[in-house]
Amino acid sequence: MSNRVIIFDTTLRDGEQALAASLTVKEKLQIALSLERLGVDVMEVGFPVSSPGDFDSVQTIARTIKNSRVCALARALEKDIDAAAQSLSVAEQFRIHTFISTSTIHVESKLKRSFDQVLEMAVAAVKYARRFTDDVEFSCEDAGRTPIDNLCRMVEEAIKAGAKTINIPDTVGYTIPSEFGGIIETLFNRVPNIDQAVISVHCHDDLGLSVANSITAVQHGARQIECTVNGIGERAGNCSLEEIAMILATRKAALGLETGINAKEIHRTSNLVSQLCNMPVQANKAIVGANAFTHSSGIHQDGMLKAQNTYEIMTPESIGLNRNNLNMTSRSGRHVIKHRMQEMGYAEHDYDMDTLYEAFLKLADKKGQVFDYDLEALVFMEAQADDENQYKLQQLVVHSDSTQGQATATVTLEVGEQVVTEAATGNGPVDAAYNAITRASGCQINISSYKLSAKGEGQDALGQVDITAKYHEQNFHGVGLATDVVEASVQALIHVMNLTWRADKVAENKTKIQQGRAVLGGV
């Protein structure tokens, strides 16, 4: 049996479906490219039949990614499999992942069928998916609570039908490691054709055991782990990719297993997913938390000064976290910026040097010293920029009187080809600025969440504002970054307004297409 564990990332499918606001196609592609650089073997990037937007994003990613296998999810239904195959057809190689529930509670309560009927549907789905690709994965949903006889029977028949990967999910995070490991061991002992497929596991973290269950599974013969960056996903989340990668790397001598993950990309990928998904990483999170390499105890600090490995079993550098933050000023040249970007793992094609250097100079003039984390923040914001924006801020002037509890804001806003200036009052500078923007744009946005965080250290740190807003029953996530928190707040709102404007344009275009089809159909 191979000692290579396949890393199947589902950040863009299982992880994304749990977010308060859906990611745009551009944001999903950014994450997919980062996952490709991270070295994931397979990336599950969506559920194409669920919406036209998901179909488009799967197709865009499948067209772009070359070094990882792109996969799409489909229920055991022909229309789902057709959508998956069509969206993935632009890729040279791809995987279709089809699934059906197998536990008694799901079969009887959700599907309202007999197990034999479900087995028949599963076999038919695998055979149908094989018409489009040799790489078909089949999942036994809620396998952790499925009677073992039924599970063995389902796995055997799915392999006979042509599935090359069989996934055993602990869908509700119910099992404990000894129990889950026993399920995998039983499958290897009782399914006669088990050697014809790769056994995969997909564990949820409802009881905090997703990583432990996954490691136990590979110790019992599984060779694919399904996981997400930062462990994001349904309910309590999924098995954490970075934890799996570093467990297998750090304990390679004990486990005898390895992955193709480029661990030095972990920190950057984690940050990107956290920011785009608007899901902060808890400080004490293993591997990527802010405190993961922090030592507070005096005894620990003393030990670290004497020998780093006294209290660190891996180094920050091993996951791409650079300890040395070189400060730069407005006198730093382009070559310095380029060097720092290279040191942080960025390739030249990851950013536009002219745009980055211009933003760097503006920031350096404002705060004096600029650090590595500032550069990363600027690159992140550059990646979010879009050429086609309906709204653009020209000027913001705010006056606030704490004794009166009132603030006044005046904004000059580009709205299409027009320039509009409006003023308004509010309960504080952010409220006043938002009221003025609403007047100037005529755009009504219902903000459901507002978060302010510091990107960096000290009183000159950049302020990042993340807002979630509801518009036409859909949630949108906007982000702003500036040394001034009011300006960052305005940027976040304008970001959301541009997203809603593009959503309206897409809806209008779809309506025109449908009307055109109706006219043609009536001819």
From TrEMBL:
PROSITE patterns: AIPM_HOMOCIT_SYNTH_1 (PS00815), AIPM_HOMOCIT_SYNTH_2 (PS00816), PYR_CT (PS50991). SUPFAM superfamilies: 2-isopropylmalate synthase LeuA, allosteric (dimerisation) domain (SSF110921), Aldolase (SSF51569). It holds the Pfam family HCS_D2. Keywords: Amino-acid biosynthesis, Branched-chain amino acid biosynthesis, Cytoplasm, Leucine biosynthesis, Manganese, Metal-binding, Transferase. The keyword tRNA processing does not apply. It comes from the Bacteria. Residues 5-267 form the Pyruvate carboxyltransferase domain. Residues 392-523 are annotated as: Regulatory domain. Mn(2+) binds at residues 14, 202, 204, 238. Its cofactor is Mn(2+). Its EC number is 2.3.3.13. Pathway: Amino-acid biosynthesis; L-leucine biosynthesis; L-leucine from 3-methyl-2-oxobutanoate: step 1/4. Transmembrane segments: none annotated. It catalyses: 3-methyl-2-oxobutanoate + acetyl-CoA + H2O = (2S)-2-isopropylmalate + CoA + H(+). Belongs to the alpha-IPM synthase/homocitrate synthase family. LeuA type 1 subfamily. PANTHER family: 2-ISOPROPYLMALATE SYNTHASE 1, CHLOROPLASTIC-RELATED, HOMOCITRATE SYNTHASE-RELATED. Catalyzes the condensation of the acetyl group of acetyl-CoA with 3-methyl-2-oxobutanoate (2-ketoisovalerate) to form 3-carboxy-3-hydroxy-4-methylpentanoate (2-isopropylmalate). This is 2-isopropylmalate synthase. It comes from Shewanella algidipiscicola.
